[in-house]
Amino acid sequence: MNKNIIFLITLIILAIAGAFAYQKYNQYLPTASQEIQVENFSTAQIQQIRQNTPITEVKVYKAKRLIKLMHRDQIIQSYPMRLGFNPIGHKVQEGDGKTPEGQYILDWRNPKSAFYKSLHVSYPNAQDQAKAKKLGVSAGGDIMIHGSATTTQVNKLPKLMTYLPQKDWTWGCVAVRNVDMDEIWKLVDDGTIITIYP
Q1: Which residues of 18-121 form beta strands (DSSP E)?
Q2: Start and end of every L,D-TPase catalytic domain (predicted)?
């Protein structure tokens, strides 16, 4: 067979494989660092915040892909985030890829989460359970605020502490950079209200 034909066939196969891989995995490409405008606090600043302006509520704005830590009406810190892979609308059932909307409580935490660290959102509430029951489906659960890289990944590549995918990718959780998860972990106590807006 002619070398030019073999070369052309190889190029076509590589192009098809590359397009397939990009389509399947492009949601995990990292967000450009200049798009992330977070200046994380020092340990001393975190102590001052906890003492003088403790976090009273976490607000999640799904459309803006933004989390705000609030002390009453004062914004203490904001973080970019990613949502469930099917983000529009309120979570109705397990596996729908939606992030819940409404007011919940951050009721417990996991220091050894599959994605670094996590704070648990008290979804489903009684209303969510009633709606799922009426539809004959499971409401789902295990909705968290968590990191974007696993502890194993970070141990192998420490730069992943600042990794945030370009697109939504979770099963309904709210994902932030691991470095931001560390800060949220230190600033937000169990029992804090979380309000998730469309």
Answers
A1: 57-61, 66-71, 74-80, 102-113, 116-121
A2: 56-197
Cβ–Cβ under 8 Å, residues 56 and 71: yes
Q: State the catalytic residues.
A: 146, 173
Q: Between vectors from CA 27 to CA 16 and to CA 197, what angle results, nearest 5°?
A: 150
Q: In this predicted structure, what is the pLDDT of residue 8?
A: 67
Q: Which residues lie below 8 Å from residue 98, measured CB to CB, with a gap of 6+?
A: 84, 86, 87, 88, 89, 90, 91, 92, 172
pLDDT of residue 138: 92
Check if the beta carbon of residue 164 is closer than 8 Å to that of residue 66.
no
For the entire predicted model, the pTM comes to 0.84
**Sign (positive/negative) of CA torsion 28, 34, 35, 41?**
positive
Cβ distance 106 to 188 under 8 Å? yes
How many Å apart are CA 16 and CA 129, to the nearest integer?
A: 45
Coil, helix or strand for 130?
Answer: helix
DSSP state of 174: E
